[in-house]
What we know:
about 150 residues; alpha+beta; 4 helices; about 25% helix; about 40% strand
Amino acid sequence: MTKFTGAWTEEEVESYLRDAAIPIRLACHRPDESLWMVALWYRYRNGTFECSTWAEADVVRYLRNDSEIAFEVSSNHPPYRGVRGNGSTSLAEDEGKAVLRDLLERYLGGTDSELARWLLSEDREEVRIRVNPRRVYSWDYTDRMQGVATGE
């Protein structure tokens, strides 16, 4: 069961995560127990984040070794707001690259680009990373940053 705290209700968090087309930052442990951070495209539904990445990516190896993570999805321009938390991950084949295709639609507006064609090529195997949050904390500095120009 996910615990939601902070500035927003669970419904407001879910709305933000569905609408914000910015990467999720995942922090995990490397096998030597040092920390590693990676930014990935995500989709949020049914209380979980789903990402897709190359099966040979370092983060896949790290998550196979230790599934515990911390995460953040936040704006880079004022007014600053977002969510952070922790949880665990599970890995599976991204069958038919379904998650990747959805992410290409979400972040690039479709699959008609050189990047999309490369990511969808037959010789690339993709892994779905599912993030199961335990704790989600939201913050929103909109009120305190009134009058600050936005960069978005």
